[in-house]
Amino acid sequence: xxxxxxxxxxxxxxxxxxxxxxxxxxxxxxxxxxxxxxxxxxxxxxxxxxxxxxxxxxxxxxxxxxxxxxxxxxxxxxxxxxxxxxxxxxxxxxxxxxxxxxxxxxxxxxxxxxxxxx
Length: 118
Description:
By secondary structure, the chain is mainly alpha-helical. The protein contains four helices and no strands.
């Protein structure tokens, strides 16, 4: 096994562990992360698999196939994060309005700290 494969496997294990130790993940997310890890581990250990699959679906090289799929994955990730960002912005706006309506006589001060005396 070449040194680059060893380094990639170690990095994959570190990333998977960092992802799986999060207690907020649901079972589906853990399953998807584990499947992605197994798939990437398979590609690291047996890189010719990507070339065989690429040739079977008329893509020139295995690297190109991995490149296309990684860009598709990143695009889906960006869209998902953008949607989550929009939902959070709406939630923050609603909360801000509710707080403002509950405290109409307290003007906002730029350097306002949470003062227990107030």
